[in-house]
Protein backbone atom coordinates (compact mmCIF):
# COMPACT_ATOMS: atom_id res chain seq x y z
CA UNK A 1 0.00 0.00 0.00
CA UNK A 2 1.38 3.42 -1.01
CA UNK A 3 0.77 6.07 1.64
CA UNK A 4 1.21 9.79 0.88
CA UNK A 5 0.21 12.91 2.79
CA UNK A 6 -3.40 12.66 1.56
CA UNK A 7 -3.90 9.22 3.06
CA UNK A 8 -1.62 9.39 6.08
CA UNK A 9 -3.73 10.87 8.87
CA UNK A 10 -6.71 8.61 8.29
CA UNK A 11 -4.49 5.51 8.13
CA UNK A 12 -2.81 6.23 11.49
CA UNK A 13 -5.26 4.24 13.68
CA UNK A 14 -4.89 1.14 11.46
CA UNK A 15 -1.09 1.53 11.45
CA UNK A 16 -1.03 1.77 15.22
CA UNK A 17 -3.08 -1.42 15.47
CA UNK A 18 -0.75 -3.25 13.05
CA UNK A 19 2.35 -2.18 14.96
CA UNK A 20 0.83 -3.16 18.30
CA UNK A 21 -0.01 -6.64 16.99
CA UNK A 22 3.34 -7.22 15.24
CA UNK A 23 6.06 -9.64 16.35
CA UNK A 24 8.66 -7.72 14.43
CA UNK A 25 8.86 -4.89 11.90
CA UNK A 26 10.83 -4.97 8.62
CA UNK A 27 12.39 -1.71 7.42
CA UNK A 28 13.82 -0.46 4.13
CA UNK A 29 14.53 3.18 3.29
CA UNK A 30 15.19 4.93 -0.04
CA UNK A 31 17.31 8.09 -0.08
CA UNK A 32 17.91 10.94 -2.52
CA UNK A 33 21.65 10.19 -2.30
CA UNK A 34 24.08 7.95 -0.44
CA UNK A 35 27.56 9.41 -0.35
CA UNK A 36 28.47 12.94 -1.13
CA UNK A 37 31.30 13.43 -3.66
CA UNK A 38 33.94 14.17 -1.06
CA UNK A 39 37.59 14.89 -1.54
CA UNK A 40 40.08 12.09 -0.85
CA UNK A 41 40.63 12.21 2.97
CA UNK A 42 36.86 12.34 3.51
CA UNK A 43 36.08 9.32 1.33
CA UNK A 44 34.96 6.09 2.94
CA UNK A 45 37.72 3.47 3.14
CA UNK A 46 37.63 -0.25 3.96
CA UNK A 47 40.19 0.47 6.68
CA UNK A 48 37.99 2.98 8.52
CA UNK A 49 37.22 2.28 12.16
CA UNK A 50 33.44 2.22 12.80
CA UNK A 51 33.73 5.63 14.48
CA UNK A 52 35.54 7.06 11.43
CA UNK A 53 32.91 5.56 9.09
CA UNK A 54 30.24 7.15 11.29
CA UNK A 55 31.72 10.64 11.14
CA UNK A 56 32.16 10.51 7.36
CA UNK A 57 28.67 9.10 6.77
CA UNK A 58 27.06 11.61 9.15
CA UNK A 59 27.91 14.38 6.69
CA UNK A 60 26.07 12.64 3.81
CA UNK A 61 23.06 11.88 6.03
CA UNK A 62 22.72 15.58 6.81
CA UNK A 63 22.82 16.45 3.13
CA UNK A 64 20.49 13.86 1.59
CA UNK A 65 16.97 13.00 2.58
CA UNK A 66 14.56 10.10 2.85
CA UNK A 67 12.13 9.87 -0.05
CA UNK A 68 10.46 6.58 0.86
CA UNK A 69 10.19 4.27 3.86
CA UNK A 70 8.97 0.72 3.42
CA UNK A 71 7.67 -0.92 6.59
CA UNK A 72 6.34 -4.46 6.96
CA UNK A 73 4.53 -5.43 10.13
CA UNK A 74 4.93 -9.20 10.63
CA UNK A 75 2.54 -10.97 12.98
CA UNK A 76 2.56 -14.70 13.67
CA UNK A 77 -0.43 -16.88 12.77
CA UNK A 78 -1.98 -18.47 15.83
CA UNK A 79 -1.43 -22.20 16.05
CA UNK A 80 1.05 -22.28 13.17
CA UNK A 81 4.70 -22.07 14.09
CA UNK A 82 7.06 -19.96 11.97
CA UNK A 83 4.25 -18.59 9.81
CA UNK A 84 3.60 -14.89 9.59
CA UNK A 85 1.23 -12.45 7.97
CA UNK A 86 2.96 -9.31 6.70
CA UNK A 87 1.28 -5.94 6.18
CA UNK A 88 3.50 -3.70 4.05
CA UNK A 89 3.29 0.05 3.53
CA UNK A 90 5.35 2.39 1.36
CA UNK A 91 5.43 5.84 2.91
CA UNK A 92 6.44 8.76 0.67
CA UNK A 93 8.03 11.47 2.82
CA UNK A 94 8.85 15.12 2.27
CA UNK A 95 10.48 17.41 4.87
CA UNK A 96 7.98 19.75 6.59
CA UNK A 97 7.87 23.24 5.08
CA UNK A 98 6.01 25.47 7.42
CA UNK A 99 6.54 29.02 8.63
CA UNK A 100 10.23 29.49 9.35
CA UNK A 101 11.14 25.99 8.19
CA UNK A 102 12.37 25.78 4.58
CA UNK A 103 14.61 22.78 4.27
CA UNK A 104 17.15 22.05 1.58
CA UNK A 105 18.24 18.60 0.55
CA UNK A 106 20.45 17.15 -2.16
CA UNK A 107 19.86 14.72 -4.96
CA UNK A 108 22.64 12.55 -6.34
CA UNK A 109 22.37 11.76 -10.06
CA UNK A 110 23.38 8.11 -9.56
CA UNK A 111 20.67 7.68 -6.90
CA UNK A 112 18.13 9.11 -9.32
CA UNK A 113 19.27 6.47 -11.84
CA UNK A 114 18.91 3.78 -9.18
CA UNK A 115 15.40 4.88 -8.21
CA UNK A 116 14.39 5.15 -11.89
CA UNK A 117 15.43 1.55 -12.41
CA UNK A 118 12.80 0.52 -9.86
CA UNK A 119 10.04 2.75 -11.26
CA UNK A 120 10.11 5.27 -8.41
CA UNK A 121 7.36 7.90 -8.68
CA UNK A 122 8.88 11.32 -7.91
CA UNK A 123 5.52 13.04 -8.08
CA UNK A 124 4.30 10.98 -5.11
CA UNK A 125 7.42 12.01 -3.18
CA UNK A 126 7.58 15.71 -4.10
CA UNK A 127 3.87 16.50 -4.43
CA UNK A 128 2.30 14.27 -1.81
CA UNK A 129 5.09 13.39 0.62
CA UNK A 130 4.13 13.06 4.30
CA UNK A 131 5.80 15.81 6.38
CA UNK A 132 8.10 14.95 9.27
CA UNK A 133 10.46 16.65 11.67
CA UNK A 134 12.89 15.82 14.44
CA UNK A 135 12.59 16.97 18.07
CA UNK A 136 14.70 20.07 17.47
CA UNK A 137 12.59 21.25 14.54
CA UNK A 138 9.44 20.43 16.47
CA UNK A 139 10.56 22.69 19.31
CA UNK A 140 11.13 25.58 16.86
CA UNK A 141 7.79 25.12 15.10
CA UNK A 142 5.91 24.73 18.38
CA UNK A 143 7.43 27.98 19.58
CA UNK A 144 6.44 29.89 16.44
CA UNK A 145 2.94 28.37 16.28
CA UNK A 146 2.24 29.17 19.93
CA UNK A 147 3.40 32.74 19.41
CA UNK A 148 1.05 32.81 16.41
CA UNK A 149 3.38 34.93 14.33
CA UNK A 150 5.35 32.58 12.08
CA UNK A 151 6.75 34.21 9.01
CA UNK A 152 5.42 33.16 5.61
CA UNK A 153 8.58 32.08 3.80
CA UNK A 154 8.33 31.59 0.07
CA UNK A 155 7.36 34.40 -2.27
CA UNK A 156 4.59 32.20 -3.62
CA UNK A 157 3.00 31.91 -0.21
CA UNK A 158 3.09 35.67 0.15
CA UNK A 159 1.51 36.15 -3.30
CA UNK A 160 -1.11 33.51 -2.70
CA UNK A 161 -2.08 34.95 0.64
CA UNK A 162 -2.26 38.44 -0.88
CA UNK A 163 -4.61 37.12 -3.59
CA UNK A 164 -6.79 35.39 -1.01
CA UNK A 165 -7.02 38.46 1.25
CA UNK A 166 -7.87 40.68 -1.75
CA UNK A 167 -10.56 38.25 -2.85
CA UNK A 168 -12.15 38.00 0.59
CA UNK A 169 -11.93 41.76 1.22
CA UNK A 170 -13.69 42.53 -2.07
CA UNK A 171 -16.42 40.01 -1.32
CA UNK A 172 -16.78 41.29 2.25
CA UNK A 173 -17.60 44.83 1.06
CA UNK A 174 -20.86 43.71 -0.51
CA UNK A 175 -21.65 40.71 1.71
CA UNK A 176 -24.24 40.66 4.47
CA UNK A 177 -23.96 38.94 7.82
CA UNK A 178 -24.51 35.22 7.37
CA UNK A 179 -23.32 35.20 3.74
CA UNK A 180 -20.53 32.82 2.92
CA UNK A 181 -17.97 32.33 0.13
CA UNK A 182 -15.61 29.47 -0.66
CA UNK A 183 -11.90 29.40 -1.49
CA UNK A 184 -11.22 26.24 -3.48
CA UNK A 185 -8.05 24.14 -3.82
CA UNK A 186 -6.45 24.91 -0.45
CA UNK A 187 -5.42 21.87 1.59
CA UNK A 188 -3.07 20.77 4.37
CA UNK A 189 -0.99 23.32 6.23
CA UNK A 190 -1.75 25.96 3.67
CA UNK A 191 -5.39 25.75 4.66
CA UNK A 192 -4.44 26.32 8.30
CA UNK A 193 -2.11 29.15 7.32
CA UNK A 194 -4.69 30.88 5.11
CA UNK A 195 -7.32 30.62 7.84
CA UNK A 196 -5.02 31.99 10.52
CA UNK A 197 -3.99 34.93 8.34
CA UNK A 198 -7.59 35.70 7.33
CA UNK A 199 -8.86 35.51 10.90
CA UNK A 200 -6.03 37.76 12.07
CA UNK A 201 -6.61 40.31 9.29
CA UNK A 202 -10.43 40.51 9.30
CA UNK A 203 -12.34 40.72 12.60
CA UNK A 204 -15.81 40.11 11.14
CA UNK A 205 -15.33 36.80 9.41
CA UNK A 206 -15.14 33.18 10.48
CA UNK A 207 -13.48 30.36 8.57
CA UNK A 208 -14.16 26.63 8.36
CA UNK A 209 -12.20 23.95 6.56
CA UNK A 210 -14.12 21.46 4.41
CA UNK A 211 -12.00 18.99 2.45
CA UNK A 212 -10.03 21.16 -0.01
CA UNK A 213 -12.24 24.23 0.50
CA UNK A 214 -11.90 27.02 2.99
CA UNK A 215 -15.35 28.46 3.71
CA UNK A 216 -15.44 32.11 4.79
CA UNK A 217 -18.54 33.45 6.58
CA UNK A 218 -19.39 37.06 7.44
CA UNK A 219 -20.24 37.22 11.15
CA UNK A 220 -20.90 39.88 13.78
CA UNK A 221 -18.26 40.62 16.38
CA UNK A 222 -20.13 38.88 19.24
CA UNK A 223 -20.63 35.84 17.01
CA UNK A 224 -16.94 35.87 16.21
CA UNK A 225 -16.07 36.02 19.93
CA UNK A 226 -18.40 33.10 20.58
CA UNK A 227 -16.97 30.99 17.74
CA UNK A 228 -13.42 31.69 18.87
CA UNK A 229 -14.21 30.49 22.35
CA UNK A 230 -16.38 27.51 21.40
CA UNK A 231 -14.84 24.39 22.87
CA UNK A 232 -14.17 22.68 19.50
CA UNK A 233 -12.46 25.64 17.93
CA UNK A 234 -10.37 27.26 20.64
CA UNK A 235 -7.23 28.63 19.08
CA UNK A 236 -5.08 26.61 21.48
CA UNK A 237 -6.70 23.31 20.51
CA UNK A 238 -6.56 24.30 16.85
CA UNK A 239 -2.84 25.01 17.14
CA UNK A 240 -2.33 21.55 18.61
CA UNK A 241 -4.03 20.18 15.52
CA UNK A 242 -1.71 22.15 13.20
CA UNK A 243 1.32 20.85 15.05
CA UNK A 244 -0.01 17.29 14.79
CA UNK A 245 -0.36 17.71 11.01
CA UNK A 246 3.09 19.27 10.67
CA UNK A 247 4.69 16.47 12.73
CA UNK A 248 3.23 13.95 10.27
CA UNK A 249 5.32 10.79 10.02
CA UNK A 250 7.17 11.64 13.24
CA UNK A 251 3.94 10.82 15.11
CA UNK A 252 4.09 7.31 13.67
CA UNK A 253 7.83 7.06 14.35
CA UNK A 254 7.15 7.77 18.01
CA UNK A 255 4.47 5.06 18.03
CA UNK A 256 7.03 2.65 16.60
CA UNK A 257 9.57 3.59 19.29
CA UNK A 258 6.99 3.16 22.01
CA UNK A 259 5.97 -0.28 20.73
CA UNK A 260 9.56 -1.59 21.24
CA UNK A 261 9.23 -4.26 18.53
CA UNK A 262 12.33 -5.85 16.99
CA UNK A 263 13.38 -3.93 13.89
CA UNK A 264 14.70 -6.01 10.98
CA UNK A 265 16.58 -4.66 7.96
CA UNK A 266 19.35 -5.51 5.52
CA UNK A 267 22.58 -3.52 5.70
CA UNK A 268 20.67 -1.05 7.83
CA UNK A 269 23.34 1.21 9.35
CA UNK A 270 22.57 4.00 6.89
CA UNK A 271 18.84 3.60 7.62
CA UNK A 272 19.49 3.93 11.36
CA UNK A 273 21.52 7.11 10.89
CA UNK A 274 18.69 8.62 8.85
CA UNK A 275 16.01 7.54 11.37
CA UNK A 276 17.99 9.27 14.14
CA UNK A 277 18.65 12.47 12.15
CA UNK A 278 15.24 12.90 10.55
CA UNK A 279 12.79 11.83 13.28
CA UNK A 280 14.68 11.91 16.57
CA UNK A 281 17.57 14.38 16.87
CA UNK A 282 20.42 15.70 14.70
CA UNK A 283 23.18 13.06 14.67
CA UNK A 284 25.59 13.59 17.59
CA UNK A 285 29.31 13.96 16.94
CA UNK A 286 30.12 10.98 19.12
CA UNK A 287 29.61 7.53 17.65
CA UNK A 288 29.09 6.07 21.14
CA UNK A 289 26.35 8.58 21.82
CA UNK A 290 24.67 7.59 18.54
CA UNK A 291 24.78 3.89 19.45
CA UNK A 292 23.40 4.63 22.90
CA UNK A 293 20.54 6.69 21.40
CA UNK A 294 19.63 4.10 18.77
CA UNK A 295 19.57 1.32 21.34
CA UNK A 296 17.32 3.30 23.62
CA UNK A 297 14.97 3.91 20.64
CA UNK A 298 15.11 0.35 19.27
CA UNK A 299 16.44 -2.17 21.82
CA UNK A 300 16.24 -5.11 19.39
CA UNK A 301 17.86 -4.57 15.97
CA UNK A 302 18.42 -7.44 13.55
CA UNK A 303 20.53 -6.79 10.45
CA UNK A 304 20.16 -9.67 7.99
CA UNK A 305 23.55 -8.74 6.49
CA UNK A 306 25.18 -9.78 9.76
CA UNK A 307 22.93 -12.86 10.01
CA UNK A 308 23.98 -14.06 6.52
CA UNK A 309 27.66 -13.32 7.26
CA UNK A 310 27.34 -15.43 10.39
CA UNK A 311 25.73 -18.32 8.49
CA UNK A 312 28.47 -18.17 5.84
CA UNK A 313 31.12 -18.34 8.53
CA UNK A 314 29.51 -21.49 9.97
CA UNK A 315 29.19 -23.09 6.52
CA UNK B 1 5.59 21.36 -26.70
CA UNK B 2 7.29 19.37 -23.90
CA UNK B 3 10.73 18.06 -24.90
CA UNK B 4 12.53 15.39 -22.84
CA UNK B 5 15.58 13.24 -23.57
CA UNK B 6 13.52 10.82 -25.67
CA UNK B 7 12.41 13.51 -28.10
CA UNK B 8 15.42 15.85 -27.99
CA UNK B 9 17.81 14.54 -30.64
CA UNK B 10 15.19 14.17 -33.35
CA UNK B 11 13.78 17.64 -32.69
CA UNK B 12 17.20 19.35 -33.03
CA UNK B 13 16.96 20.10 -36.79
CA UNK B 14 13.53 21.71 -36.36
CA UNK B 15 14.79 23.71 -33.37
CA UNK B 16 17.77 24.95 -35.33
CA UNK B 17 15.46 26.07 -38.13
CA UNK B 18 13.18 27.91 -35.69
CA UNK B 19 16.11 29.69 -34.03
CA UNK B 20 17.60 30.68 -37.40
CA UNK B 21 14.28 32.18 -38.50
CA UNK B 22 13.52 33.98 -35.23
CA UNK B 23 13.64 37.73 -34.65
CA UNK B 24 14.08 37.25 -30.93
CA UNK B 25 13.95 34.43 -28.38
CA UNK B 26 11.99 34.50 -25.11
CA UNK B 27 13.48 32.68 -22.12
CA UNK B 28 12.18 31.45 -18.76
CA UNK B 29 13.96 28.97 -16.49
CA UNK B 30 12.71 26.93 -13.52
CA UNK B 31 15.16 25.93 -10.79
CA UNK B 32 15.25 23.38 -7.97
CA UNK B 33 15.98 26.23 -5.55
CA UNK B 34 16.66 29.95 -5.54
CA UNK B 35 18.58 31.03 -2.48
CA UNK B 36 20.39 28.78 -0.10
CA UNK B 37 19.58 29.23 3.61
CA UNK B 38 22.70 31.19 4.40
CA UNK B 39 23.78 32.66 7.67
CA UNK B 40 23.29 36.41 8.17
CA UNK B 41 26.37 38.02 6.48
CA UNK B 42 25.82 35.87 3.39
CA UNK B 43 22.14 36.80 2.99
CA UNK B 44 21.08 39.00 0.09
CA UNK B 45 20.39 42.60 1.15
CA UNK B 46 18.74 45.49 -0.66
CA UNK B 47 21.90 47.50 -0.02
CA UNK B 48 24.20 45.05 -1.83
CA UNK B 49 26.29 46.39 -4.68
CA UNK B 50 25.69 44.41 -7.90
CA UNK B 51 29.09 42.73 -7.44
CA UNK B 52 28.14 41.71 -3.86
CA UNK B 53 24.79 40.39 -5.06
CA UNK B 54 26.65 38.44 -7.74
CA UNK B 55 29.05 36.76 -5.33
CA UNK B 56 26.27 35.76 -2.93
CA UNK B 57 24.02 34.48 -5.72
CA UNK B 58 26.87 32.56 -7.39
CA UNK B 59 26.94 30.22 -4.40
CA UNK B 60 23.23 29.32 -4.78
CA UNK B 61 23.60 28.86 -8.54
CA UNK B 62 26.33 26.29 -7.95
CA UNK B 63 24.13 24.42 -5.50
CA UNK B 64 20.78 24.32 -7.30
CA UNK B 65 20.02 23.16 -10.81
CA UNK B 66 17.82 23.89 -13.79
CA UNK B 67 14.85 21.56 -14.07
CA UNK B 68 13.08 23.22 -16.99
CA UNK B 69 13.85 25.79 -19.67
CA UNK B 70 11.04 27.45 -21.58
CA UNK B 71 12.05 28.99 -24.92
CA UNK B 72 9.83 30.84 -27.37
CA UNK B 73 11.13 31.60 -30.85
CA UNK B 74 9.32 34.71 -32.15
CA UNK B 75 9.35 35.38 -35.90
CA UNK B 76 7.64 38.30 -37.57
CA UNK B 77 4.83 37.75 -40.08
CA UNK B 78 5.72 39.04 -43.51
CA UNK B 79 3.78 42.11 -44.56
CA UNK B 80 2.24 42.65 -41.11
CA UNK B 81 4.06 45.02 -38.81
CA UNK B 82 4.40 44.16 -35.12
CA UNK B 83 2.82 40.73 -35.53
CA UNK B 84 4.75 37.63 -34.58
CA UNK B 85 4.34 33.87 -34.60
CA UNK B 86 5.78 32.19 -31.49
CA UNK B 87 6.96 28.58 -31.26
CA UNK B 88 7.34 27.56 -27.62
CA UNK B 89 9.15 24.54 -26.18
CA UNK B 90 9.53 23.33 -22.59
CA UNK B 91 12.80 21.48 -22.19
CA UNK B 92 13.17 19.19 -19.16
CA UNK B 93 16.84 18.99 -18.18
CA UNK B 94 18.87 16.66 -15.97
CA UNK B 95 22.65 16.93 -15.41
CA UNK B 96 24.65 14.39 -17.43
CA UNK B 97 25.61 11.28 -15.46
CA UNK B 98 28.21 9.45 -17.41
CA UNK B 99 31.39 7.64 -16.46
CA UNK B 100 33.23 9.76 -13.90
CA UNK B 101 30.48 12.39 -13.75
CA UNK B 102 28.00 11.97 -10.87
CA UNK B 103 26.55 15.34 -10.07
CA UNK B 104 24.81 16.43 -6.91
CA UNK B 105 22.25 19.20 -6.73
CA UNK B 106 19.95 20.60 -4.09
CA UNK B 107 16.23 20.99 -3.82
CA UNK B 108 14.64 23.71 -1.74
CA UNK B 109 11.32 22.82 -0.15
CA UNK B 110 9.77 26.21 -0.97
CA UNK B 111 10.76 25.83 -4.64
CA UNK B 112 9.09 22.42 -4.68
CA UNK B 113 5.94 24.10 -3.34
CA UNK B 114 6.19 26.74 -6.07
CA UNK B 115 6.64 24.18 -8.86
CA UNK B 116 3.76 22.09 -7.45
CA UNK B 117 1.48 25.10 -7.67
CA UNK B 118 2.05 25.16 -11.43
CA UNK B 119 1.58 21.41 -11.93
CA UNK B 120 5.26 20.65 -12.56
CA UNK B 121 5.90 17.01 -13.53
CA UNK B 122 8.95 15.77 -11.61
CA UNK B 123 8.95 12.44 -13.44
CA UNK B 124 9.60 14.24 -16.73
CA UNK B 125 12.51 16.07 -15.11
CA UNK B 126 14.09 13.20 -13.16
CA UNK B 127 13.32 10.29 -15.50
CA UNK B 128 13.51 11.88 -18.92
CA UNK B 129 15.57 15.06 -18.50
CA UNK B 130 17.86 16.04 -21.39
CA UNK B 131 21.53 15.82 -20.34
CA UNK B 132 23.80 18.86 -20.52
CA UNK B 133 27.28 19.93 -19.49
CA UNK B 134 29.51 22.98 -19.49
CA UNK B 135 32.82 23.26 -21.34
CA UNK B 136 34.83 22.12 -18.32
CA UNK B 137 32.78 18.95 -17.86
CA UNK B 138 32.88 18.35 -21.60
CA UNK B 139 36.68 18.42 -21.53
CA UNK B 140 36.74 15.84 -18.73
CA UNK B 141 34.26 13.54 -20.44
CA UNK B 142 35.97 13.87 -23.80
CA UNK B 143 39.24 12.90 -22.18
CA UNK B 144 37.79 9.80 -20.53
CA UNK B 145 35.80 8.75 -23.62
CA UNK B 146 38.85 9.10 -25.89
CA UNK B 147 40.92 7.03 -23.47
CA UNK B 148 38.09 4.51 -23.56
CA UNK B 149 38.41 3.61 -19.90
CA UNK B 150 35.85 5.62 -17.98
CA UNK B 151 34.84 4.13 -14.70
CA UNK B 152 31.28 2.93 -14.22
CA UNK B 153 30.10 4.92 -11.24
CA UNK B 154 26.96 3.73 -9.54
CA UNK B 155 26.67 0.24 -8.09
CA UNK B 156 23.55 -0.28 -10.19
CA UNK B 157 25.45 0.26 -13.40
CA UNK B 158 28.01 -2.26 -12.28
CA UNK B 159 25.30 -4.82 -11.46
CA UNK B 160 23.50 -4.22 -14.73
CA UNK B 161 26.65 -4.59 -16.76
CA UNK B 162 27.56 -7.77 -14.87
CA UNK B 163 24.13 -9.22 -15.70
CA UNK B 164 24.51 -8.30 -19.37
CA UNK B 165 28.01 -9.79 -19.65
CA UNK B 166 26.87 -13.01 -17.93
CA UNK B 167 23.92 -13.27 -20.28
CA UNK B 168 25.98 -12.73 -23.43
CA UNK B 169 28.79 -15.06 -22.27
CA UNK B 170 26.31 -17.87 -21.61
CA UNK B 171 24.69 -17.40 -25.02
CA UNK B 172 28.10 -17.18 -26.72
CA UNK B 173 29.10 -20.65 -25.47
CA UNK B 174 26.42 -22.35 -27.56
CA UNK B 175 26.12 -19.85 -30.41
CA UNK B 176 27.57 -20.28 -33.87
CA UNK B 177 29.13 -17.61 -36.04
CA UNK B 178 26.41 -15.44 -37.55
CA UNK B 179 23.93 -16.09 -34.72
CA UNK B 180 22.56 -13.06 -32.96
CA UNK B 181 20.79 -12.25 -29.69
CA UNK B 182 19.03 -9.12 -28.45
CA UNK B 183 19.29 -7.21 -25.17
CA UNK B 184 16.03 -5.30 -24.72
CA UNK B 185 15.29 -2.07 -22.84
CA UNK B 186 18.72 -0.41 -23.09
CA UNK B 187 18.69 3.14 -24.43
CA UNK B 188 20.72 6.35 -24.48
CA UNK B 189 24.18 6.43 -22.95
CA UNK B 190 23.63 3.11 -21.26
CA UNK B 191 23.36 1.52 -24.70
CA UNK B 192 26.69 3.04 -25.69
CA UNK B 193 28.25 2.02 -22.38
CA UNK B 194 26.97 -1.55 -22.59
CA UNK B 195 28.23 -1.88 -26.17
CA UNK B 196 31.68 -0.53 -25.35
CA UNK B 197 32.03 -2.83 -22.34
CA UNK B 198 30.85 -5.88 -24.32
CA UNK B 199 33.14 -5.15 -27.26
CA UNK B 200 36.06 -4.65 -24.87
CA UNK B 201 35.35 -7.87 -22.95
CA UNK B 202 34.54 -10.23 -25.83
CA UNK B 203 36.71 -10.27 -28.98
CA UNK B 204 34.40 -12.42 -31.11
CA UNK B 205 31.17 -10.43 -30.98
CA UNK B 206 29.84 -7.32 -32.68
CA UNK B 207 27.10 -5.04 -31.40
CA UNK B 208 24.55 -2.85 -33.13
CA UNK B 209 22.05 -0.45 -31.59
CA UNK B 210 18.45 -0.58 -32.82
CA UNK B 211 15.98 1.69 -31.02
CA UNK B 212 15.90 0.35 -27.42
CA UNK B 213 17.59 -2.96 -28.32
CA UNK B 214 21.25 -3.81 -28.39
CA UNK B 215 21.81 -6.61 -30.91
CA UNK B 216 24.82 -8.87 -30.27
CA UNK B 217 26.21 -10.97 -33.14
CA UNK B 218 28.84 -13.73 -32.98
CA UNK B 219 31.55 -12.95 -35.54
CA UNK B 220 34.99 -14.26 -36.52
CA UNK B 221 38.07 -12.25 -35.58
CA UNK B 222 38.72 -11.05 -39.18
CA UNK B 223 35.08 -9.99 -39.46
CA UNK B 224 35.41 -8.15 -36.18
CA UNK B 225 38.53 -6.37 -37.44
CA UNK B 226 36.67 -5.38 -40.62
CA UNK B 227 33.60 -4.10 -38.72
CA UNK B 228 35.76 -2.12 -36.36
CA UNK B 229 37.49 -0.40 -39.25
CA UNK B 230 34.42 0.07 -41.45
CA UNK B 231 33.98 3.75 -42.17
CA UNK B 232 30.56 4.09 -40.52
CA UNK B 233 31.60 2.40 -37.29
CA UNK B 234 35.12 3.50 -36.57
CA UNK B 235 35.52 3.76 -32.85
CA UNK B 236 36.63 7.38 -33.16
CA UNK B 237 33.48 8.40 -35.05
CA UNK B 238 31.36 6.38 -32.65
CA UNK B 239 32.92 8.14 -29.69
CA UNK B 240 32.04 11.46 -31.29
CA UNK B 241 28.45 10.26 -31.37
CA UNK B 242 28.53 9.34 -27.67
CA UNK B 243 29.89 12.75 -26.80
CA UNK B 244 27.17 14.40 -28.89
CA UNK B 245 24.51 12.47 -26.93
CA UNK B 246 26.12 13.29 -23.60
CA UNK B 247 26.38 17.00 -24.48
CA UNK B 248 22.62 17.01 -25.10
CA UNK B 249 21.08 20.43 -24.48
CA UNK B 250 24.51 22.11 -24.60
CA UNK B 251 24.53 21.43 -28.36
CA UNK B 252 21.36 23.49 -28.68
CA UNK B 253 22.74 26.16 -26.34
CA UNK B 254 25.72 26.57 -28.65
CA UNK B 255 23.36 26.91 -31.64
CA UNK B 256 21.53 29.64 -29.75
CA UNK B 257 24.79 31.46 -29.01
CA UNK B 258 25.88 31.19 -32.63
CA UNK B 259 22.56 32.58 -33.89
CA UNK B 260 23.13 35.85 -31.93
CA UNK B 261 19.40 36.57 -31.60
CA UNK B 262 18.14 39.03 -28.97
CA UNK B 263 17.26 37.16 -25.76
CA UNK B 264 14.19 38.41 -23.87
CA UNK B 265 13.27 37.48 -20.30
CA UNK B 266 11.68 38.87 -17.17
CA UNK B 267 13.90 39.45 -14.13
CA UNK B 268 16.46 37.30 -15.90
CA UNK B 269 19.70 37.85 -13.94
CA UNK B 270 19.34 34.50 -12.17
CA UNK B 271 18.63 32.82 -15.52
CA UNK B 272 21.80 34.31 -17.00
CA UNK B 273 23.93 33.09 -14.10
CA UNK B 274 22.54 29.57 -14.56
CA UNK B 275 23.05 29.64 -18.36
CA UNK B 276 26.70 30.59 -17.80
CA UNK B 277 27.35 27.98 -15.09
CA UNK B 278 25.47 25.06 -16.60
CA UNK B 279 26.19 25.34 -20.34
CA UNK B 280 29.22 27.59 -20.73
CA UNK B 281 31.72 27.67 -17.85
CA UNK B 282 31.69 27.65 -14.03
CA UNK B 283 30.82 31.18 -12.86
CA UNK B 284 33.97 33.29 -12.49
CA UNK B 285 34.73 35.03 -9.22
CA UNK B 286 34.80 38.43 -10.86
CA UNK B 287 31.46 40.08 -11.63
CA UNK B 288 33.05 42.04 -14.48
CA UNK B 289 34.32 38.86 -16.06
CA UNK B 290 30.80 37.38 -15.83
CA UNK B 291 29.30 40.43 -17.56
CA UNK B 292 31.93 40.30 -20.26
CA UNK B 293 31.28 36.58 -20.86
CA UNK B 294 27.50 36.94 -20.97
CA UNK B 295 27.71 39.81 -23.43
CA UNK B 296 30.00 37.87 -25.72
CA UNK B 297 27.50 34.95 -25.59
CA UNK B 298 24.36 37.09 -25.97
CA UNK B 299 25.09 40.61 -27.26
CA UNK B 300 21.44 41.71 -27.08
CA UNK B 301 19.65 41.06 -23.77
CA UNK B 302 16.26 42.58 -23.01
CA UNK B 303 14.93 42.27 -19.47
CA UNK B 304 11.24 43.21 -19.37
CA UNK B 305 11.61 44.06 -15.68
CA UNK B 306 13.87 46.95 -16.64
CA UNK B 307 11.57 47.89 -19.53
CA UNK B 308 8.53 48.15 -17.24
CA UNK B 309 10.54 50.10 -14.64
CA UNK B 310 11.51 52.53 -17.36
CA UNK B 311 7.92 52.94 -18.55
CA UNK B 312 6.77 53.52 -14.95
CA UNK B 313 9.41 56.21 -14.53
CA UNK B 314 8.15 58.02 -17.66
CA UNK B 315 4.51 57.73 -16.55
TrEMBL record, chains A, B:
<comment type="similarity">
    <text>Belongs to the CAF1 family.</text>
</comment>
<dbReference type="Pfam" id="PF04857">
    <property type="entry name" value="CAF1"/>
</dbReference>
<dbReference type="InterPro" id="IPR036397">
    <property type="entry name" value="RNaseH_sf"/>
</dbReference>
<dbReference type="GO" id="GO:0003676">
    <property type="term" value="F:nucleic acid binding"/>
</dbReference>
<dbReference type="InterPro" id="IPR012337">
    <property type="entry name" value="RNaseH-like_sf"/>
</dbReference>
<dbReference type="InterPro" id="IPR006941">
    <property type="entry name" value="RNase_CAF1"/>
</dbReference>
<dbReference type="GO" id="GO:0016070">
    <property type="term" value="P:RNA metabolic process"/>
</dbReference>
<dbReference type="InterPro" id="IPR051181">
    <property type="entry name" value="CAF1_poly(A)_ribonucleases"/>
</dbReference>
<protein>
    <submittedName>
        <fullName>Poly(A)-specific ribonuclease (PARN)-like domain containing 1</fullName>
    </submittedName>
</protein>
Amino acid sequence: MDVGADEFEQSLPLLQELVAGADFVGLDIEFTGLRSNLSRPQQISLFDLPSEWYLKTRQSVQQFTICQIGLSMFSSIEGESNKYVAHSCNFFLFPTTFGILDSEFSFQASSVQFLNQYGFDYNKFLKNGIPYMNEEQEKKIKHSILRGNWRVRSSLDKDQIKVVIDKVTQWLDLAEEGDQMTLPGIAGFQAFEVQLVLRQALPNIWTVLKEEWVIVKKVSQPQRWYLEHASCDQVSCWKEQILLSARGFSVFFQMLVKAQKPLVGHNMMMDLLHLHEKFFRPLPESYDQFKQNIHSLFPVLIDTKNVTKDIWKKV
